[in-house]
Amino acid sequence: MNALDFPTLDAVRDAYAGLAGPVIVVNKSHSGSRLLARLLADGGIFLGARRNESEDALDILEWVEFVVRTHYPDFARVGRDKSATAEVAWRAHAGFERHLRGFDRASSSPWGWKLCESAYALPVLTRLFPRARVIHLVRDGRDVAFCDHHGPTDAFWRKIYFDTDRIATWRGLRLTGPAYRRRSHRYNAAHWCNAVRVARACGSMLGDRYLEVRYEDLCGDFAVSAERVLRFAGAPDVGGAIARVAPLVHGDSVGRHRREPARAVREVVAIAKAELLAFGYLERDPERPRRSPWHSAFADDLVDRLRRGDLIASWRRRALRR
C-alpha cells in the first residue's frame, strides 16, 4: 500500500469501519495515566503493539507529532487541500496499521490507545473514527506543575504549550532548556492549562462519548471510579481488572504541591487560576484586588464615568440648575 491508496480521511475511516470505535486516553503528562492505561489493558482493551514505559502508543505518537507540527491549531486545510489531506491520511493509515499489529480485527474486541497529546489531534481523529470514545484524565494542576516533563524548546512542544510555534518568549522568559529547568513549575502550569482546556473543549463536543475522570478520584475511591471508566470503555473484564490493579493504587502523590515552597505554589496558581477554578481544584478565587487608591473601585468608577462623559454631563446639569 502507498499514499495513493488512502488519499482522503474518508478512505482511512472506511478502512477501519469494521472495528469498534477506539478508546482514546488523553491527559496532561504526569497526570497518572499509566495507572489508567494499566487498568484498561487488564480489562481486556488492546492498547497497541508498541508502547513505551509510560504506556504511550509510539506509532500513534509519530502521527500526532506530524499533525500538530503541520496543522494544529488550524485544521482547515485538512479536507480542503488535497495534497495536505492525502499526507495526513496516508500517514494515519500507516501508523494505525503498525499500532494494530497482533490485534484480532475479526473480533469485536475493544481497542484504543493512551497518548497525552492525542487531544490536540481530536478534530482529525474523530473524523477518522466517528465512534471514538475519549477518556480525559485530569489531575490537580498544582501537583502536575511540580512534575517535570518536556519544555517548550521546539516547534511541536511550543504548540502543545501555547498553540503556536511562532512564540519566542513567554512572560519575558526564554523558551530554552535551561530556562525551563530553572523555573519548570511556571512552564508546567502553562502546559497544564492548555492541555486540560484543549482536551475538554474538543472532547465535550462528543457528548456521551467523552468521559472526564479525576486522578484524585481514582486514588481515593478506586473501585467506583475504575468501574465507571471500564464500563464507559466497554472493557470485557471489569471485575477482574479492578481486583488486579487495586493493589497498585496509592495516593502518595495527591496533594504533593503542599510539600513545595509556598511562593512557587502561588506562582503556579497565578498562572493557572482560571483553569483550577473551572476544573474545581479551587473552591473560590484566592486573589484579591490590588490594594491601592489607583486600583480601587472608586477610581475605576471615576475613570469609567470620565471616559463615557457621564461625569462631565453631570457637572453641566448642575451648572445649569444654578
List descriptors:
322 residues, alpha/beta, Rossmann fold, 2 domains, 15 helices, globular
Structure in a nutshell:
This protein has 322 residues and is an alpha/beta fold. The protein contains 15 helices and six strands.
Mean pLDDT rating = 93
Our Rg estimate from Cα atoms comes to: 24 Å
- Give the uncertain stretches in residue-range form: none
How many DSSP-defined strands? 6
Instruction: Please state how the strands of the largest beta sheet are arranged side by side.
Output: 2-1-3-6
Amount of helix: 40-55%
So what's the CATH class of the largest domain? Alpha Beta
CATH architectural label of the largest domain: 3-Layer(aba) Sandwich
> Which fold name corresponds to the CATH topology of the largest domain?
Rossmann fold
Q: Give me the number of helical elements.
A: 15
Rough shape? globular
